[in-house]
Specification:
This protein has 110 residues and is mainly alpha-helical. It has two domains: 15-43, no CATH class; 45-110, no CATH class. Helix content is 35%, strand content 7%. It has four helices and two strands. The protein has a two-stranded antiparallel ribbon. The N and C termini lie far apart (61 Å).
Length: 110
């Protein structure tokens, strides 16, 4: 019974920042200020491309084959579509648009 006393103040969080950054820390206070003044921060995802299994690991990535692969990847990202619950979605449906009605901010792998 005594061992379970810790569950009296038990709280669950789904925000990893709450686990690692103290609410009164300078970084947290400054982040709240920026969010209040400029809006939420959007993370850009990163894709790392590496040579294939049978390719030279020290090969120059500025070769024609790699650049063509990056171009096709960029086109797939920009023109890709996915069907979810009988509805088609594209990058335009969920991308970050800082100017309403204008294009998406899509980082290019090029």
């Amino acid at each position: 019974m005594f061992c379970a006393m810790g569950f009296v103040n038990f709280q669950i969080t789904d925000d990893p920042q709450e686990l690692w950054v103290a609410p009164e820390s300078r970084s947290n206070i400054e982040q709240e200020y920026v969010i209040n003044k400029f809006g939420a921060f959007f993370r850009i995802n990163t894709i790392w491309l590496t040579p294939g299994v049978n390719e030279d690991m020290d090969a120059d990535v500025f070769q024609k084959g790699y650049l063509e692969m990056l171009y096709h990847l960029q086109m797939a990202i920009e023109n890709g579509k996915a069907e979810v619950n009988d509805k088609m979605y594209s990058v335009d449906d969920f991308c970050y648009k800082p100017i309403t009605g204008k294009g998406c901010i899509v980082t290019s792998p090029m």
